[in-house]
C-alpha cells in the first residue's frame, strides 16, 4: 500500500535549522510531484514547498522563501525539507504530499489532493 512517512521533526530554537525527510513506498515515486504542507494549532493547513517529479522545478510559499529548501532523491524515494532561520511561526505539524506528475500547480493551490503522510511535529521555541 502507499505510504509516506515523515521524520526529522522536533524542538529547535529560533534561528536554528532542521531537516525533514519523507520516505515514500508503494507507488512509482519518480512519477509524482512531491510537496510539504504544514498546519499550526487552530489554523488551516497551508502550502510550504513543492518539487516536480524530476526535481527540476521547485515552488515555495512566500512565508518560507529564502529559508526553506525542498529537494528529492528518487533513487532513495525520499523528499527533504531543509529549514533554516526558523521562526516561532514555523511551529506546526508538517505533512508530506504526493500528487501525480504534472499536477504541481494543483498542489501549490492547497487542494488536499493526492497521498499524505502522518505528519511530523516541528516546534520552534526558546
In short:
The protein has 126 residues and is mainly beta.
Describe this structure in words.
The chain is mostly beta strands and 126 residues long. 4% of the residues lie in helices and 48% in strands. The protein has 1 helix and 11 strands. It has one helix at residues 104-108, and strands at residues 3-7, 10-12, 18-25, 32-39, 46-51, 58-60, 68-73, 78-83, 92-100, 115-116, 120-124. Strands 2, 4, 5, 6, 9, 10 and 11 form a 7-stranded mixed sheet that branches. The chain has a 4-stranded antiparallel sheet with strand order 1-3-8-7, with no helix packed on it. The radius of gyration is 13 Å and the shape is globular. The chain starts with a strand and ends with a strand. The mean pLDDT is 96.
Q: Key features?
A:
globular, 7-stranded mixed sheet, mainly beta, 126 residues, 48% strand
Tell me the fraction of residues in β-strands, as a range.
over 45%
SSE series: EEEEEEEEEHEE
SSE class = mainly beta
Helix content: under 10%
What is the gyration radius calculated from CA atoms?
Answer: 13 Å
Please mark out the parts with pLDDT under 50 across 5 or more consecutive residues, or reply none. Answer: none
Mass-distribution shape:
globular
Number of helices: 1
Distance between the termini: 40 Å
Multimeric state of these chains? single chain
Largest sheet: 7 strands, mixed
Average per-residue pLDDT, rounded, comes to 96
Amino acid at each position: 500500500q502507499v505510504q509516506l512517512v515523515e521524520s526529522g521533526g522536533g524542538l529547535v530554537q529560533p534561528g536554528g535549522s532542521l531537516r525533514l525527510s519523507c520516505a515514500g513506498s508503494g507507488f512509482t515515486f519518480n512519477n509524482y510531484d512531491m510537496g510539504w504542507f504544514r498546519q499550526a494549532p487552530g489554523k488551516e493547513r497551508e502550502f510550504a514547498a513543492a518539487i516536480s517529479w524530476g526535481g527540476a522545478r521547485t515552488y515555495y510559499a512566500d512565508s518560507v522563501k529564502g529559508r526553506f529548501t525542498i529537494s528529492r532523491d528518487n533513487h532513495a524515494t525520499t523528499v527533504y525539507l531543509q529549514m533554516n532561520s526558523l521562526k516561532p511561526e514555523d511551529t506546526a505539524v508538517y505533512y508530506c504530499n504526493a500528487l501525480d506528475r504534472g499536477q504541481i500547480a494543483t498542489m501549490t493551490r492547497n487542494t488536499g489532493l493526492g497521498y499524505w503522510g502522518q505528519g511530523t511535529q516541528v516546534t520552534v521555541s526558546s
